[in-house]
Amino acid sequence: MKYVPEKKPIYGENLDSLQNRFAEMGEPRFRAKQVLDWLYKKRARSWDEMSNLPQPLRDRLEQEFEIAPTKRILAKESADETEKLLLEMGDHSLVETVVIRAPQVGVGQKDSRKTICISTQVGCAYGCRFCASGLAGWKRDLSVGEIVSQLIHVCHLEDGTTERAREEIASFDNIVVMGMGEPMANYENLLPALRILNASWGLNFGARRITISTSGVVPKILELADEPEQFRLAVSLHGATNEVREQIMPINKRYPLEVLIPAIERYAATKGRMVTLEFILIEEINDTFEQADALAQIALRLNAHVNLIPYNSVPGLDWKRPSLTRQESFYDRIRRKDVSATIRREKGHDIAAACGQLKLQTEQAV
Ligand code: SAH
Ligand code: SF4
To answer: What CATH class does 70-365 carry?
Structure first.
């Protein structure tokens, strides 16, 4: 399904495409840079704020481009300061963006680290058995502008009223592409969107601070390995043998571990950076010592970091989160093998921060 909005989202444009558009309009090319400056540096919310553009040009831009990012219909804050934005697209589809604040470990000027989690699709076609986004299936891909505008929303939420305040206040430390959808299944919009965030004329946000999480779409992992940017890769493993992984993630039939692991190895080698393996702990499904040992073996082979995530229950799915003791013994078991690992102490559990859950709750309530 493809959604074509009435006006093109301005946040889907890049320097080249805008320069070309201005050339077609008979306008000087430098206008493109001026517009992008207003959008990304001064964070203008209307064409009228763009005071160095002639009024007739502003009127024309208004007719052709949509400047308002997607519509924010709900912002929920949880006790641990995780904040969820539920955004409505032009076709009324709902998408979520999460702001996670974590205390800074070690020395730093700021006392908390802010991570923004963005979505790439409405729903998801991959149908992982633990995931709310997969429940309702895939509806459509987000456009470049819809992906970028999620970050703009976060900036707008926190921007001060003066230009100076805007530049200082709206900052975040990391972007993770871990919200609704499989990013690699929308690669053609994902990459241009990340390049806009990364560009010096855009948000100027370092590629090394952007993590793309995938359920293991092997050809796209290999394609991303060959891109020039140093994006970080996280792979949702969730099962350390084909037998267990297949039960949890249907994609494992298409790209089983013997195909996935070499692809991750290749990514790590090309970028020279550690990859993260995500592993949701689900009671009696993948929380055994056999799984811990198999996971440790994979992580050591890949020199990967393991992120253990206690399963968040999803309405309509009947799997359970293991007890704290079971979680800890799984963690200890892999740590004893010298695997670099962390165990996530839930962020935003009370507002259902795991992917797709806020959207699901809202839809079920209406
Ligand atoms: N499609 C991509 C990115 C989105 S899902 C992928 O699969 O990697 C990203 C993450 O959301 C999952 O890896 C998992 O860490 C988290 N997640 C989804 N459902 C969850 C649940 N029920 N409990 C805990 N984490 C969940
Ligand atoms: Fe899709 Fe990722 Fe959820 Fe699997 S975990 S259904 S790939 S969003």
So the answer is: alpha beta
Q: How far is the CA of 348 from the centre of ligand 2 (A)?
A: 19
Give me the residue spans of the domains in the chain: 8-66, 70-365
Between the CA of 343 and the centroid of ligand 1 the distance, in Å, is: 15
What are the tokens at 34?
A: 């001026």
CB-CB contact of 339 with 333 (8 Å) = no
Strands 138-141 and 121-123: antiparallel
User: Looking at residues 15-28, what average pLDDT do you find?
Assistant: 96
Instruction: List the one residue out of 135, 98, 134, 138 whose CA is nearest residue 121.
Output: 138
CB contact at 8 A, 60 and 26: no
- Give the separation between CA 317 and CA 130, rounded to whole angstroms: 7
**Tokens 């993260």 found at:** 276
**C-alpha distance from residue 106 to each of 109, 110, 210, 349 (Å):** 10, 10, 21, 25
| 10, two tokens | 């301005």
Provide the mean pLDDT of the chain. Answer: 88
pLDDT at residue 110 tops 60: no
What is this structure's pTM?
Answer: 0.92
% the chain with pLDDT above 90: 72
Catalytic residue among 13, 27, 83, 96: 96
- Domain 8-66 class in CATH: mainly alpha
Amino acid symbol at 47? W
Cα separation, 179 vs 353, in Å, equals: 9
Question: Is 49 an active-site residue?
Answer: no
For the chain, strand residue ranges (E) read: 8-9, 65-66, 71-77, 83-88, 94-103, 112-117, 121-123, 138-141, 174-177, 210-214, 232-236, 276-281, 305-310, 341-343
Give CA 11 to chain center in angstroms: 17
**Sole residue written with tokens 């206690």:** 310
Interatomic CA distance for residues 296 and 361, integer angstroms: 35
User: Does residue 202 surpass a pLDDT of 70?
Assistant: yes
What dihedral angle (degrees, nearest 10) is formed by the CA atoms of 244, 246, 247, 249? 120
Is the minimum distance from the CB of 240 to ligand 2 under 6 angstroms?
no
Q: Which pair of tokens denotes residue 48? A: 């009228």
